[in-house]
Structure formats: structure tokens, C-alpha cells
Design brief:
Distance between the termini: 33 Å
Strand order of the largest sheet: 2-1-9
Low-confidence stretches: none
Shape: globular
Order of helices and strands: EEEEEEEEE
Length: 117
């Protein structure tokens, strides 16, 4: 009789929305240092990132300076230990934990609560 293999548990990335958790994808589908866009139930998009330390982040995907849905294609970095994404268009940096623009104190995007469960 062959040994029984332990069941693999799939870890899913979920965003906290007003009415509960939205499952976005399997954690294993994310590439460290890169983002993906996720369509939300209300038609907006979230930019979801797996940073190189293994933490998952999500912010609104719309660049407030251009109106284009491109933040998921930005470059990840960190400043003083805080992760950010730089917009691929005009290079403004957005804190991945708060959504605050690091280059303009009056601008921010929505940051989402994220869990991998």
C-alpha cells in the first residue's frame, strides 16, 4: 500500500472590503517584486503586490496624477524600511501600507487590508 501524502493547503490572498473578504488569487501566483491588478466587485481595480520579504500589500490601482490604472505595473522599493511602489508613468511613490504619496503630502490612494489565509 502506498503512503498517503499529506494534503496541500492552498493559501489564498484576500482583500478586506466593506462587506467582507474578497479572494483575489492563490499566494503562489504572485511574483515577489511584481504587482497584479485585481478587479473589485464595484468595477474599481486594486494593485496587489508580494514584496521580496514575503508580505502582501494592496492599494488602489489608479494613479491619481494621470487617472490611468497602472500602479500594479510600478517598481517596488523601500524608504526607511517602508515599502512603496513608484508609478510607471510619472514616478510618484506610494506607500504600500498607507497609500500616502511620498512625493506629495496632499495625495493618497486607498490602501486595503490584506490577508493570506
Amino acid at each position: 500500500m502506498a503512503p498517503i501524502a499529506p494534503e496541500k493547503t492552498t493559501v489564498m490572498v484576500q482583500l478586506g472590503l466593506e462587506d467582507g473578504w474578497l479572494t483575489v488569487c492563490e499566494l503562489g501566483r504572485l511574483t515577489p517584486g511584481r504587482g497584479v491588478a485585481a478587479l473589485l466587485p464595484d468595477g474599481r481595480q486594486a494593485a496587489v503586490f508580494l514584496d521580496r520579504s514575503g508580505r502582501v500589500h494592496a492599494i488602489d490601482n489608479t494613479d491619481p496624477f494621470t487617472g490611468a490604472s497602472v500602479l500594479s505595473r510600478g517598481l517596488l522599493g523601500s524608504q526607511r524600511g517602508r515599502p512603496f511602489v513608484a508609478s510607471p508613468l510619472l514616478k510618484q511613490r506610494f506607500d504600500l501600507e498607507t497609500g500616502r504619496c511620498l512625493d506629495d503630502d496632499e495625495v493618497a490612494v486607498q490602501a486595503y487590508t490584506v490577508r493570506a489565509a
